[in-house]
Design brief:
This protein is of the alpha/beta class. The strands form three sheets. Strands 3-2-1-4-5-8-12-10 form an eight-stranded mixed sheet, with helices on both faces. A two-stranded antiparallel sheet has the order 6-7.
Length: 212
């Protein structure tokens, strides 16, 4: 596939780009600066773009088979920018006639019980709640979209740099945790889960949790 990757210079974005390239896909990596993120591959092209501008997204997405997103707010932007990004990407993809979207989402909206989401638990860090709530709002916008073959892929409660084991589990709408209740995945294995779903399309219109 020829994939447009938004947020390609971030820690998760770089790992998704590498996973895509290792599988033979072509990647156009988008960041605000146009930085390569240290990736040196003939099938990778770095470009500058604004993921909050639907015109820019439409221009960038045109001619690609799919859009992958590793977008997220940084310390210089408010969490609500996630909603602006989602609106712009959905709008821009429609204009570009690109239907496949896989989005790196947040774990906060995943269920840990029949009527309880992770963000609603006492253990959820208070400082992370604004981003988690914004990610849920962005997901709600996406869930209303029927014209795209979208998948919202969320990591475990804890995602960090770590070993690429090739192992992971998924659950629709639920937090993935081990027998001890720990919810964790390395960024490298999350990238595997992400690209597996991008290739297979097994979980279209699904909020997919990942973890060990």
């Amino acid at each position: 596939m020829d994939v447009l990757l938004l947020g390609a210079s971030g820690r998760i974005g770089q790992r998704i780009a590498t996973e895509l390239l290792d599988r033979g896909h072509a990647v156009t990596g988008v960041s605000r600066s146009g930085d390569t993120g240290g990736i040196d591959d003939p099938s990778f092209v770095a470009v500058a773009g604004d993921a909050t501008d639907p015109d820019d997204v439409a221009k960038l997405a045109t001619g690609h088979d799919a859009v992958a997103s590793a977008l997220g707010p940084d310390e210089d932007t408010p969490p609500d920018v996630l909603v602006d990004m989602m609106d712009a990407v959905v709008d821009g993809m429609g204009r570009a006639s690109v239907e496949r979207l896989v989005w790196t989402g947040g774990a906060g909206g995943l269920h840990v019980g029949p009527e309880t989401r992770l963000v609603e638990t006492e253990e959820f860090p208070e400082e992370w709640e604004p981003v988690a709530r914004a990610a849920i709002d962005a997901y709600d916008r996406l869930a209303e979209t029927q014209d795209l073959a979208w998948t919202y892929v969320a990591p475990a409660a804890l995602i960090e740099p770590g070993e690429r084991t090739g192992e992971y589990r998924t659950a629709e709408g639920e937090l993935v945790a081990d027998e001890d209740g720990d919810s964790y995945i390395s960024m490298a294995d999350f990238a595997i889960a992400f690209v597996d779903e991008l290739e297979s399309g097994d979980a279209v219109h699904t909020y997919l949790g990942t973890g060990y």
